[in-house]
Every structure is written in structure tokens, then in C-alpha cells.
Design brief:
It is a single chain. By secondary structure, the chain is an alpha/beta fold. The protein folds into 2 domains: 232 residues, TIM Barrel; 29 residues, no CATH class. Strands 1-2-3-4-5-6-7-8 form an 8-stranded parallel barrel, surrounded by 7 helices. The two termini are 39 Å apart. The structure holds 3-methyl-2-oxobutanoic acid. The site of 3-methyl-2-oxobutanoic acid (KIV) has 11 residues, from strand 6. InterPro entries: Pantoate_hydroxy_MeTrfase, Pyrv/PenolPyrv_kinase-like_dom, Pyrv_kinase-like_dom_sf. It is an enzyme of class 2 (transferase).
């Protein structure tokens, strides 16, 4: 049985940045509702990402592209309402920041007003102006490079990036440039997704902001996973993820036992009845 942290201090943006020097690894996990936000916070995560993966794991859509700013604002608000010690990261969805830096600032303000403490957006070199504009109005930004799910059609699927050399999108040298551009533009942390371990290690050594990996090996300054993968709620198991529980099976077992009890009349009995 693990000991859960009690009354831990609020995790702030400067505290996350300091981890680069102290070497204490950063743990980030997604959550989209109050129940799970409370649980993951009690378990001691450093950062809660209200991710646009909400599209796949909550809304039942195929990829992150249909998720809108109003959806993200709603989920940010219900997570932030739990007042977690963990830092709340609001994910900017597809179409809410790509049009112009001004659009990105306006969308970031929407998420911050609903309780986000920083925002995350996808893209490297070509998003530098946008990251700069958001940072200029004192909204802290988490960058996200590598396998960027909002670029699913350009990548031809959710495919590992940085395996081939080159400066074109997804090329190894380009990803190194992307990381430096994101840092120079003012991001305080960088998610690296779906790249070879050695590249993530090189990027982590090159930038002075913490890197947070997903499918990027153990050498990043922290890790992030989707909550449903950690809990084993998804039918699909990914190579890069680790299921620490098999809640899918437990939910199936519990719900089918309930159905059987109702059908047979075993439950509710007199002890579950009011008199
Ligand atoms: O939306 C999300 O869950 C993410 C993670 C995969 C990093 O962006």
C-alpha cells in the first residue's frame, strides 16, 4: 500500500522549471473530470493535463481534430474546480491557435479564465511566434513536438517521428531545431511525443527547460500518459504506455454482476431497502 502525500504545496510553473536543475522527475497525467482530477491529485501527480485526448477517451471521436475550444474550456473548468495541488495544464485544441498569434492569445485567455494555470500547444519552429505572443501576456506555455496528434494527416497516422534525418517536418534535425525554437520563444516546459529514445535524450540535454516524454524513453525530465491507459481502461494497449491496473476488466466484471443481480432479483434485498 503506497503512502499518499497529504497537504502538499501547490505546484507552480517556477517549481516545475526548477526540476531541470534538481533532477527530480516530473509526473504528468491527463484528467478530464472532477472525480479523476481529485484522485490523481491525491495520488501526487505534479501536473494534470486536461488534454484534447478527451476527444478519443471521453467523446468517442477518432482523433483530436474535432475537439473544440468550448469542449476544452468545459473540461478545464471542472478539473480546476477541484483546486488540485497539481499544476493544471489546458490543452489548446486544433483550430484554436493555428490561425494567428492573436487567435492563440485569445484562446489561451479563454482557458485561463476557466481555471487553467498554463496552456499547451503543438508545433515547433513554425509556432515560435505564437508561443512568444502567448508568453508575452504572461500565460505560461508548454510546447509539444514530435508526434503531434493534431498533425495526424500530415504524418499519415500516429507515427513515430524523428527516425529519419532531415530538416523537413518530422525529420531528426528539424525536431532538434523545433525544441530550441520552442524554448527560445518562451515555453517553460516541452512535451516530446513519439520519438526515438536517443533523440529525446539529445533534446533533453540541449534545452534548459524540462522535457516531458510520452513514447520518448526514460531520459526526459518527466513523463506524461493518458489516464485511461494508466488505468487499463482502453481495449488497446500501446507499446509506450504502462497499464498499472486492469480497470476495463473490473468495470466489465462489476457491471455484469450488477446486471445479473438485477435480473435474478438477488439485489436489492431487504437490507438495501428503506422502512
Ligand atoms: O491530449 C493529450 O492527452 C496529450 C498528451 C498525449 C501529451 O497531448
Amino acid at each position: 500500500m503506497s503512502t499518499l502525500p497529504t497537504n502538499r504545496p501547490k505546484i507552480t510553473v517556477p517549481a516545475i522549471m526548477r526540476r531541470k536543475q534538481t533532477g527530480e522527475k516530473i509526473s504528468m497525467i491527463t484528467a478530464y473530470d472532477a472525480t479523476f482530477a481529485r484522485l490523481v491529485d491525491e495520488a501526487g501527480v505534479d501536473m494534470i493535463l486536461v488534454g484534447d485526448s478527451v476527444g478519443m477517451v471521453v467523446q468517442g471521436v477518432e482523433n483530436t481534430l474535432p475537439v473544440g475550444l468550448a469542449d476544452m474550456a468545459y473540461h478545464v473548468e471542472i478539473v480546476a474546480r477541484t483546486r488540485p495541488s497539481a499544476l493544471v495544464v489546458g490543452d489548446l485544441p486544433f483550430g484554436s491557435y493555428q490561425v494567428s498569434p492573436q487567435q492563440a492569445v485569445e484562446s489561451s485567455i479563454v482557458l485561463m479564465k476557466r481555471g487553467a494555470e498554463c496552456v499547451k500547444l503543438e508545433g515547433g519552429t513554425h509556432m515560435a511566434d505564437t508561443i512568444e505572443a502567448i508568453s508575452r501576456v504572461d500565460i505560461p506555455v508548454v510546447g509539444h513536438i514530435g508526434l503531434t496528434p493534431q498533425s495526424v494527416h500530415r504524418m499519415g497516422g500516429h507515427k513515430v517521428q524523428g527516425r529519419s534525418a532531415g530538416y523537413e517536418a518530422g525529420g531528426r534535425e528539424r525536431l532538434l531545431d523545433d525544441a530550441v525554437a520552442v524554448e527560445r520563444a518562451g515555453a517553460f516546459a516541452l512535451v516530446i511525443e513519439g520519438v526515438p529514445r536517443d533523440l529525446a535524450k539529445e533534446i533533453t540535454a540541449k534545452v534548459s527547460i524540462p522535457t516531458i516524454g510520452i513514447g520518448a524513453g526514460p531520459d526526459c525530465d518527466g513523463q506524461v500518459l493518458v489516464l485511461h491507459d494508466v488505468l487499463g481502461l482502453s481495449a488497446h494497449r500501446y507499446k509506450f504506455a504502462k497499464a498499472y491496473a486492469d480497470l476495463r476488466q473490473q468495470v466489465l466484471d462489476a457491471t455484469s454482476a450488477y446486471v445479473a443481480d438485477v435480473q435474478s432479483g438477488v439485489w436489492p434485498d431487504d437490507t438495501h431497502s428503506f422502512h
